[in-house]
Amino acid sequence: MSRSVCRLAAALLCSTAAAHAAPSPRPDEAEARAAAVLTQMTPQERRVLLRGYVPYYAPARLLGAPNSAGVVPGVPRLGVPNLTESDASLGVANLGGVMRAGDGATALPSAAALAATWDPALVEKAGAAIGAEARAKGFNVLLAGGVNLVREPRNGRNFEYFSEDPLLSGTLVGHAIRGVQSNAIISTIKHFALNAQETGRGGLSANMAEAALRESDLLAFEIGVEIGRPGSVMCAYNQVNGVYACENSFLLNDVLRRDWGYKGFVMSDWGAVHSTSIREGLDQESGTNAKKPALFGEGLETALASGKVAQADVDRAALRILTSMYRLGVVDRPVKAGEPIDFEANGRVAREVAESGIVLLKNEGQILPIGTATQRILVIGAHADVGVLGGGGSSQVLPVGGAALTLPLPGEPIYHKKMYAPSSPLLALRALRPGSSVTYDDGTDPARAAAAARDAQLVVVFAEQFTAEGKDVPDLSLPNGQDALIAAVAAANPKTVVVLETGGPVLMPWLDKVSAVLEAWYPGQRGGEAIARVLTGEIDASGRLPVTFPAAVDQTPNPKLPGSDRGQPRGDAGLYDVAFDEHFPVEYPEGADAGYRWYDRTKAKPLFAFGHGLSYTRFAYSGLELAGGRTLTARFTVANVGTRPGTETAQVYARVGGVKHLVGWERVVLKPGETRTLSVTADPRLLAAFDVKARNWRVAPGAYAVAVGSASDAPRLEGEVRLTGSRLRP
Ligand code: GLC
């Protein structure tokens, strides 16, 4: 049964999905054990489960907890352990070593790179690797699973999120969560919901009609919850349609519990609680300070005393927390700090992700891969002589072996540091081309770099864009004069290759002056090696864009960054700074049509389309067969008609309501001459509109155009299929 159909069935406990899920007791067994232990708890013991602390500000009895994002007291006398929480999706974070000096962890490539692999199994393997490290460091909760859709290309946290498409994002985050939780620890999925920018994140109201929200951001969460079955959902800082996410009963009770049947618990983001919103669906307040009153501490006592909250509300929240703990093995397999970690194996996973996520955007005259005849190579910029850039914020990981370089940003919080993982593309290139002269120029003087470029047979310019939590970048231009550097070098030597280390899409005014462009994202612990292996053709370039690269900011739904008129760009990367909880509305003209769907609707031509990515070989498509009915199935054959082994991600799009929707894909590795017949069946929700009144998905009967190809703008096979029309729930 293909993955996409299984997803639908997974909502009905499809055997396939359940069979692959981490071995865990059936939900009802976990709930029964939770209920049994709850009856043994005093009312006070039940309440302590509902309030988390920042370890540094925790009560004395918790001070032994590993210092990271959070700790929640357990009930030792009943064998219920503390919840020890660390960030995040890209590895075991510790604010660049601030929290646990020297305690490095495997720094995965960014979620953008994970998404650019389009490879659920690889993403799951990466989740398993960082989940194992969290466990070995004494954490039984990993605050992973960031899956907000990439709607705003300037969002400082896009590097932590997967994609602009709900199916790609939901599928990959679900597999990442499964990987993390395969270590008998809890993963979150976050930030629920519509946390699409950082500017004013604590006070803005993200506004969107329910149907559009259900068909986009919520669908990504719904698919992620079905596949990953996360122990916890983290509600977001922002308001959704005027109600804070952590007190939004529509989101937390109606959608999450009533419609999706979610049995886990909702924790807040750190400082995101505005009331004792236990009846609105929040179960646990995160990140409080024991020396200050908390809404789920003293506030809960007051609410209980006044009758605003009943003991039954506390019991329900405690039951949800305990059910996740039992279901995921947190009670039966308690974590213990100091367990051994196979950093070598986990580093190889990080490199595999980085390699598979690198997207070859342009390759004029097949200048890449670098041939052995190219003996004089000049590498320029972005500290490529020492390492590769990562993103900033709570997800920032101190790499194994320490950072190669750390550049504090004046006036920024402790975790807004530019940090480079110790994996130098320059040294990796030299190791792969021992017979060549591979020299380096730091790029700080464009004229000097251009002069050096004249003598090289090939120039590789590394360009970086630092992005971080809490801030958005004010535009999509490469900062600090890098566009001028690239233009000067390319004018001196047209055999120039640009390697981008960015948080997301950037503009490229020099694009027609250079021969090739690779997007390496934040490539993580072994990123330098990965980049060198793709540049030299050790492996095929196989990444495909999980986000659209605009040709201009004016093409985007909100050309002016919402709220940007309320703050000033500041800091090294020109990051915005707006008062954390300033109230202002954010509207989304695109509605459900985020990303490539917006470009399809507006007929704007982006710089590079969603799904785009070149290979070092060539693929031919043939033999499209379409079957209709309640959903659609596309069968087709892909052949490697080039001379090198390569990886193709064949994508299937259907035109729904006049707009192109990704309805499935298959990633295939083919030797030269090899062919493979593939089959993709669409999850009907991707063909449907959400009927708010009926609270159901409805696929309209009729003819649907289908395109199969190597990108959203590159159909290779086209056809039409008739659907009978259906509703997801009878
Ligand atoms: C941060 C982030 C969240 C993170 C939490 C704990 O503010 O929004 O993603 O998990 O706080 O660090």
Quick structural gist:
By secondary structure, this protein is of the alpha/beta class. The protein has 18 helices and 33 strands.
Which tags fit this structure?
disordered N terminus; globular; Rossmann fold; 6-stranded mixed β-sheet; TIM Barrel; 22% strand; alpha/beta; binds alpha-D-glucopyranose; 33 strands; 4 domains; 730 residues; 18 helices
Q: Strand order, main sheet: write it out.
A: 2-3-4-5-7-10
How many strands, which pairing sense, and closed or not: the largest β-sheet?
6 strands, mixed
Bound molecules: alpha-D-glucopyranose
Structural class: alpha/beta
Describe the structure.
By secondary structure, this protein is α/β, with parallel strands linked by helices. The chain has four domains: 3-98 and 109-327, TIM Barrel; 343-535, Rossmann fold (3-Layer(aba) Sandwich), CATH 3.40.50.1700; 553-602, no CATH class; 619-727, Immunoglobulins (Immunoglobulin-like). Helices cover 25% and strands 22% of the residues. The strands form nine sheets. It has a six-stranded mixed sheet. The protein has a six-stranded mixed sheet with strand order 12-20-19-18-13-17, sandwiched between helices. A four-stranded mixed sheet has the order 9-8-6-23, with no helix packed on it. The protein is globular. The model is unreliable at 1-22 (pLDDT under 50).
